[in-house]
Amino acid sequence: MELLKRVEKTIRDERLVQAGDRIVVAVSGGPDSMALLHVLFSLRERLRIGLVAAHVNHRFRGAESDREADIVAAFAEELGVPCEMASIDVPDYIARTGMNPQAAAREKRYAFLREAAGRHGAKKIALAHHADDQAETVLMRLLRGSGPSGLAGMPIVRAEKNLELIRPLLRIYKSEIECHCADYGLPVCRDSSNESRKYFRNEIRLDVIPFLRQYSDRLPESLNRLAEIARAEDEWMEAETRRTFAEIVSVRHAGDGTECVLESASFAVLPIALQRRLIKLILNYVFSEADLSDFARIESARSVIVRERREALTLDLHDKVKLVREYGTVRFVQALPDPEPYAYAITRPDARLRLPEAGLTLECSLLETDGASAARLLADRNGSRDEAYFDYDRVPYPLSVRSRQPGDRMNPFGLKGTKKVKDMFVDEKLPPAARQRIPLVLDAAGRILWIPGVRRSAHAPVSETTTRVLAMKVRSFEG
């Protein structure tokens, strides 16, 4: 009875359920989950909740797994609780995907629990993790070099999409659960794989914790206290990180996905702990389908952002996420395939060419003029980089318009000799992501005449002897 009261107090204190909730209870058949189902069933009227039991046979242990499924189904029927059952060939899934067995089983199990919740209109899934599980989790993460977030252990409640995962037994120890099962004569199964030392968690439970208890007989309690302290501080830090995110990070949504943008100067003045947290939050925002929060990845990103040299560079953080530093601006973007090279031909002086790769339209026209009117034409440009004028009779056709290629060089107007196009882009501080999209206009001899928005070449300048002017102009287009 004492355990029932303590679990009820935890549920009410943490507001794990509300009156009218329907809850899917994950039941493996072991003592922990059978006790959880029994406790929630015993409290159902006081809490005014509905229950659905859910069991997954992972088909790891043959007849033993089948027997567990039968025992769970029979116990749920005895209580009068609806029971969702699934038999999933997880070994086959592991063979096809190469996943870690525990991770594969967890993925399939949680997917089934979410489906069961959807079928029954449940918004919460109850899991049977207890205080000894929490101690194991904290110690495992400590040995793996986790930060404060990891040392906070498992939360008692966690939002996941449109569901909440709740752990009503998280403050109850294994010995108390075993006593509850014995007191009420609950049918329980013993999973033989829990004794296998091929799993890290089992080694922690069977070897490491018993060894350490020689030096602290209250080790599980100490680890749970550490988790509680770390969680409170972690929650404060998380709130501070989200406040900072709102202040200095801009989120942009485009057809290519989500990107987060910040200024390196604003980031560099933050405390290092907050810098790391902010990067972790950004990575989760840009690509939430994978855990990208390992220390080495975050630290490599942080070092790129705070470096004093204001250069342009790209850092691959994952096959789906990259950091792009464009001088003082830093972007976290979903990694996309490199832009495909493109090339078009212009065969006549009056032409209009749409360049979807660059988001531009190139317009060419032929103007009859004399030296004086040509001079006025150039004066009226007001230094626009979106227009360029050439002596038409000195430009061999056809023209070509293409993306940049390795080794491209140009003879810029006003300079002696040639210069690498790559270096010109760097001088202009053009974002690396944009460089492959910028068009180059070349004549039939392969000379670069103009890089729209950047610079024109010294070839075929308009002079007082010019009678026909080739006018070029680019405009942005939408869509």
TrEMBL record:
Name listed for the protein in its UniProt record: tRNA(Ile)-lysidine synthase
Family per similarity comment: Belongs to the tRNA(Ile)-lysidine synthase family.
Free-text comment about domains: The N-terminal region contains the highly conserved SGGXDS motif, predicted to be a P-loop motif involved in ATP binding.
Domain (Lysidine-tRNA(Ile) synthetase C-terminal): residue spans on this chain: 399-472
Binding sites annotated in the UniProt record for ATP: 28-33
UniProt key word Amino-acid biosynthesis: no
UniProt xrefs under HAMAP family: tRNA_Ile_lys_synt
Location relative to the cell: Cytoplasm
Function: Ligates lysine onto the cytidine present at position 34 of the AUA codon-specific tRNA(Ile) that contains the anticodon CAU, in an ATP-dependent manner. Cytidine is converted to lysidine, thus changing the amino acid specificity of the tRNA from methionine to isoleucine.
